[in-house]
Amino acid sequence: MPCNYVLILFMLLASHVHAAPMELSPEQVRKDLGSAIREISVIEPHEQCGETNYIVTYVGIPLRILIEYYYPGEWTGFSGDIHLIARDGYLGIVEAGKMREKDAYLVFARADAKPFLVDNNQQGERDVPLGPFYLVWDNIGDPDLQKMCSYGWPYQVDRIQLVSDSIYAGLIPPGASPSAQAGFAAFKTYCLGCHHINGVGGRKVGAEMKLLVNGKTREDLRAWISDPQKVRPATTMPPLNRGLDNKERQRVIDQIIEFLGVL
Ligand code: HEC
Fold this sequence. Notes:
about 260 residues; alpha+beta; 2 domains; 4-stranded antiparallel sheet; about 20% strand; binds heme C
């Protein structure tokens, strides 16, 4: 009999990687991890992509310390993604490998005590609330992080979840070409935060991706992804990362269109 209990306990622990998202509040983090709270200065990419002199200092906690504390068993050897779920439906996706290499912070205030807001100029939105949590990266002196612009900087985050890569398995049809597979990786970086396919991804946009691309030509998609405001001035969809140089940007757009073609 005790053997069964051990087995059930083991199954509960092992399945935690897919467990429900954990709710986070600054009050709880202050209580649990107060001594790890610090200030972090960053080039604020929502204000101006590619502009290196707009620096803001925030107050928060290294994401790695937070994950190690709340997921003590799972984090060791974990190779999937951290999902940061935002109140506005956005899904921040951080690969564990990237987090081990670069320093990310979950911040909850500005050090200068000004309101915790940002202008999101790529989306044409002003005074957007950042709380309860905003994920920022230590990008001063890191050109790779700077060229990612505001991608990977989710705000209004209130839940966190570790997910294994298997959740994406159904999104790439078997036998997809290498460029369609590369396209999925780019889609995950640049689109999945807002859009969802087969129930996986962000909920900023209600309609499923397959419906949105239905009936669109490659040229329609290229025009839309490169510069949505040119097609529909009032849209809040941002143009694909303007921090990339033009050649790389075109290559990424091609790969994404290739992936959308196999959906
Ligand atoms: C920050 C959120 C966000 C991101 C990131 C984003 N989108 Fe969108 N997308 C939207 C919104 C909002 C709409 C609804 C368009 C509107 O304003 O009517 C939309 C609409 C669309 C449409 C339908 C357009 C139409 O004519 O109705 C397509 C196709 C699309 N997105 C593709 C993409 C692709 C591909 C990417 C990645 C390169 C992407 N989106 C990234 C927010 C986003």
